[in-house]
């Protein structure tokens, strides 16, 4: 395991790796406002033990990557997709299996459209299609209105987690406890959730960010890609896997099926009991389906 700082335009991105660099590369793209440590070490090692060179990185404005005022230095999903490619360049990787979670699933769709030559395969989990306006859906759900796309909007557990995240926490212990409570809500009750495990991970995430207690927030200011870009997904030819979680409160299960329907090469898998989180109880089945996909794409 080693660390590397890679340039992407005028920002620097922190990254690290697991496994043998001689193995096929797999890039992990985390969700919004989360650093690379949103991918637990244990999960990354499980993928590496399956024969992959696993690389993860801090998005800009998270962890140890460049952090700036978003209003003064705005960016969009095009830049975030270019960041992912810059990480591949920084590790000397021409093509990689790319796995994106939540907002990372949106980024990977943009990678598939704008940088398809860098992909060996594509995996998207806990996300939705480019034609879904999640921001508008959240607003409509909060007003008690149905979504305009006919798919279920974010569920009450997500709204509960949002409310919790907006509550101030006094000191490190309170901040860690708040984060653990957030993840317990998002994980749901379908799979075991270990508070001590998540507390340990959040302690590491805070240390990784230099002891800063406040969670990053810049990605809340992002504008989603134009919904019209979803039509371009019909041209994607790379082997694609869409993974939906049975109890995802942010992108409920039909969203995965909808996303898979936008890409001719996509197949759909579902992780029973899983919510919008990565407790160790889902690492085994999740890694198994990802490894099977990358092997079939080789």
Tally of helical runs: 9
The average pLDDT is 94
CATH superfamily: Alpha/Beta hydrolase fold, catalytic domain
Strand fraction band?
15-25%
Count of folded domains: 1
Quickly give the CATH architecture: 3-Layer(aba) Sandwich
C-alpha termini separation: 24 Å
Helix content: 25-40%
Write down the CATH topology: Rossmann fold
Q: What is the topology, as strand order, of the major beta sheet? A: 1-2-4-3-5-6-7-8
Shape descriptor reads globular
As a whole number of angstroms, the C-alpha radius of gyration is 18 Å
Function: Involved in the biosynthesis of the anthracycline aclacinomycin which is an aromatic polyketide antibiotic that exhibits high cytotoxicity and is widely applied in the chemotherapy of a variety of cancers.
Pathway: Antibiotic biosynthesis; aclacinomycin biosynthesis
EC number: 3.1.1.95
Family: Belongs to the AB hydrolase superfamily. Hydrolase RdmC family.
Task: Explain what the structure shows.
Pathway: Antibiotic biosynthesis; aclacinomycin biosynthesis. One of its GO terms (molecular function) is aclacinomycin T methylesterase activity. The chain has helices at 41-49, 77-90, 103-114, 134-142, 156-165, 172-187, 195-208, 254-262, 283-297; strands spanning 3-8, 11-18, 25-29, 53-57, 96-101, 119-125, 240-245, 266-271. It is α/β, with parallel strands linked by helices. The protein has a single domain (3-133, 216-297), classed as Rossmann fold, CATH 3.40.50. Helix 3 (103-114) links the parallel strand 5 (96-101) and strand 6.
């Amino acid at each position: 395991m080693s660390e590397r700082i890679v340039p992407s335009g005028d920002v620097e991105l922190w990254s690290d790796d697991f496994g043998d660099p001689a193995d096929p590369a797999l890039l992990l793209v985390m969700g919004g406002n989360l650093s690379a440590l949103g991918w637990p070490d244990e999960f990354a090692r499980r993928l590496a033990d399956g024969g992959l060179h696993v690389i993860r990185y801090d998005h800009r404005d998270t962890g140890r990557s460049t952090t700036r005022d978003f209003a003064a230095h705005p960016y969009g999903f095009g830049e975030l997709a270019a960041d992912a490619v810059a990480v591949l360049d920084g590790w000397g990787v021409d093509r990689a299996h790319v796995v994106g979670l939540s907002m990372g699933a949106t980024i990977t769709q943009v990678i598939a459209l704008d940088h398809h030559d860098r992909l060996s395969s594509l995996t998207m989990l806990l996300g939705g299609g480019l034609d879904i306006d999640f921001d508008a859906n959240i607003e409509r759900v909060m007003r008690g209105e149905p979504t305009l796309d006919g798919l279920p909007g974010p569920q009450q557990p997500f709204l509960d987690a949002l409310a919790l995240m907006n509550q101030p926490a006094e000191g490190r212990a309170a901040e860690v406890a708040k984060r653990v409570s957030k993840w317990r809500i998002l994980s749901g009750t379908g799979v075991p959730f270990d508070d001590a495990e998540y507390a340990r991970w959040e302690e590491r995430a805070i240390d990784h960010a230099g002891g800063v207690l406040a969670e990053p927030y810049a990605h809340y200011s992002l504008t989603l890609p134009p919904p019209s870009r979803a039509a371009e997904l019909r041209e994607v030819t790379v082997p694609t896997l869409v993974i939906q979680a049975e109890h995802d409160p942010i992108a409920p299960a039909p969203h995965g099926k909808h996303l898979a329907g936008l890409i001719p090469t996509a197949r759909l898998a579902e992780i029973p009991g899983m919510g919008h989180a990565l407790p160790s109880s889902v690492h085994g089945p999740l890694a198994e389906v990802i490894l099977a996909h990358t092997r079939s794409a080789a």
